[in-house]
Structure to design on (579 residues):
């Protein structure tokens, strides 16, 4: 669909049709004292040429470093076909379709996305996506309050392995609606939940757990899911989608599986892009679908029996239910989901599993090499996928700066999270043995130099 | 549209109420409301024991077109919900005054002047048709 701006003639004709003199007249009912004529901190408009130059200069500042940072967003190889297809004119919209049923191709893409993401997570239904992993957790918490009606506390427990930024976002989004969040205790030896110190009688509406954890460890999610259900709480599972090709799907955690799975979809074909746009995924058990936010595409047949796709569950959305809508999410991350769908379709389950296994093998090489250096050891024992916390005998911040000057982003500074000098490292399949060895050598030099 | 049952009381919001004695009333939505909504696909029911105010939201009926609130015609406490609607919400379309009932409530007192008689409700419907 082309973008065609209104001409001055169009605008005059439309104003004449409704009897208004100017576009400003349309805003007359907003009192003058409530209006602002410019936004503080937002500069004057630039020309296209000026913006292009500015953005090129900014992009150049990123350089092309060798990146070993994960911590929620992961650099994976994206087959060229993914964005070649995604940026075709028929697909290239950042947004959800408004004349939805006229966009059968877009709806089919979303339907296939939903099918694949439910298979990965082992649950029954998926929505058409949310903004990112953190806001997906906020929506999952709100959904728990709506669907787990027996529990009125609005209290959500977080396993210690949940991404701390997700907690901040979830609290920001849901605090005004009275939700409260509490961290469960961490075992400082394993980095995982300390099951001996679980609180009793907090009456949680939901318990959130993440696998692999933010620090890269593997939590006993089976036991924690069962504990959540024994408390009368929903179990919400956050999982890196790449990991789900090799780890147990959240729908199968514990005796009954989680009620809601959510997380960051970026690893599925979306570039790091300095932090976004990404997309969040959310899946749930069929019995909770009425309380799921956002939209869902369904497959049906028309009057002649021909298959077609249609938006379902729209009746609960904002444009119909206004303040009583299930959530304020009436949309989805259309373009990112298109990329993810093509990525998943190209790789298949086996391809994603190979990505996970190669990332694991690369991370083993990186961790073994780094731990051979004096002053570096693993912070937590136990198995891991493609991310590992390392304890250092000195502050990591200055060292990271020196490595960055050599074009190496050696990891995420985990000191605040861990309460000790620590680094979180990740080597995905994009790193060659030479890349990994270069990083190890550079860290050794900084540590010994 | 068939004739309104004469033994019910009605509201402006197109709910009906039947008195069953001992302070128990049955509540549903009228045929007019069910027809306007279209085929229902889901009914969100309150919990037994929930207290509702007169005019308060009590249930949600959802068709493919819209989801609408069902308001309590009078204040009371929910004693029973029509569980069969969970699997078969179209009972409301098929038999709005019978099998399509939504909740039963225990009410303290019933002031009939707060509600509409069949004649008054019929008049409202006639005005809506005009």
């Amino acid at each position: 669909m082309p973008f065609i701006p209104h001409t001055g003639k169009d605008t005059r004709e439309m104003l004449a049709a409704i009897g208004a003199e100017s576009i400003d007249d349309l805003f007359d009912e907003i009192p003058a004292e409530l209006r602002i004529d410019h936004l503080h901190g937002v500069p004057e408009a630039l020309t296209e040429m000026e913006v292009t130059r500015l953005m090129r200069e900014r992009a150049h500042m990123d350089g092309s470093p060798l990146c070993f940072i994960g911590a929620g967003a992961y650099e994976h190889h994206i087959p060229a076909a993914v964005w070649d297809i995604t940026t075709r004119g028929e697909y290239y919209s950042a947004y959800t379709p408004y004349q939805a049923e006229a966009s059968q191709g877009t709806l089919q893409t979303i339907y296939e996305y939903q099918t694949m993401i439910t298979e990965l997570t082992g649950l029954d239904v998926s929505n058409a996506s949310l903004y990112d992993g953190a806001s997906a957790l906020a929506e999952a918490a709100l959904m728990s309050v709506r669907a787990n009606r027996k529990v009125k506390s609005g209290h959500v427990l977080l396993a210690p392995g949940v991404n701390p930024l997700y907690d901040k976002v979830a609290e920001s989004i849901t605090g005004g609606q009275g939700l409260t969040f509490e961290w469960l205790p961490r075992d400082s030896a394993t980095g995982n939940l300390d099951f001996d110190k679980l609180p009793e009688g907090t009456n949680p509406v939901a318990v959130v757990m993440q696998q692999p954890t933010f620090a890269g460890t593997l939590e006993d999610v089976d036991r924690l899911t069962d504990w959540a259900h024994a408390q009368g709480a929903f179990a919400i599972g956050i999982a890196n989608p790449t990991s789900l090709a090799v780890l147990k799907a959240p729908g199968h955690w514990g005796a009954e599986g989680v009620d809601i799975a959510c997380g960051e979809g970026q690893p599925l074909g979306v570039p790091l892009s300095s932090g976004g746009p990404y997309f969040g995924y959310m899946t749930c058990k069929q019995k909770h679908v009425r309380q799921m936010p956002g939209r869902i595409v369904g497959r049906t047949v028309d009057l002649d029996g021909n298959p077609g796709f249609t938006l379902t569950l729209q009746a609960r959305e904002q444009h119909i239910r206004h303040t009583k809508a299930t959530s304020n999410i009436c949309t989805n991350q259309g373009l990112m989901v298109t990329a993810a769908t093509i990525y998943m379709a190209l790789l298949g389950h086996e391809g994603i599993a190979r990505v996970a296994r190669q990332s694991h093998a690369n991370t083993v090489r990186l961790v073994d090499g780094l731990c051979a250096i004096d002053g570096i050891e693993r912070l937590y024992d136990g198995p891991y996928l493609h991310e590992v916390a390392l304890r250092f005998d000195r502050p990591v911040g200055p060292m990271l700066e020196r490595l960055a000057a050599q074009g190496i982003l050696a990891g995420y500074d985990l000191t605040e999270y861990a309460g000790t000098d620590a680094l979180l490292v990740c080597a995905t399949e994009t790193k060659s043995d030479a890349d990994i060895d270069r990083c190890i050598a550079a860290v050794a030099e900084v540590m010994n130099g | 549209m068939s004739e309104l049952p004469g033994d019910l009381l009605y509201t402006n919001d197109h709910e009906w109420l039947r008195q069953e004695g001992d302070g128990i009333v049955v509540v549903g939505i009228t045929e007019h409301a069910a027809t306007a909504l279209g085929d229902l696909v889901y009914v969100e029911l309150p919990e037994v024991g929930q207290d509702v105010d007169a005019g308060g939201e009590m249930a949600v009926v959802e068709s493919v077109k819209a989801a609408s609130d069902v308001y309590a015609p009078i204040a009371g406490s929910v004693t029973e919900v029509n569980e069969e609607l969970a699997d078969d919400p179209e009972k409301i379309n098929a038999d709005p005054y019978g099998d399509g009932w939504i909740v039963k409530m225990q009410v303290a007192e019933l002031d009939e002047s707060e509600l509409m008689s069949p004649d008054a409700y019929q008049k409202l419907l006639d005005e809506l048709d005009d």
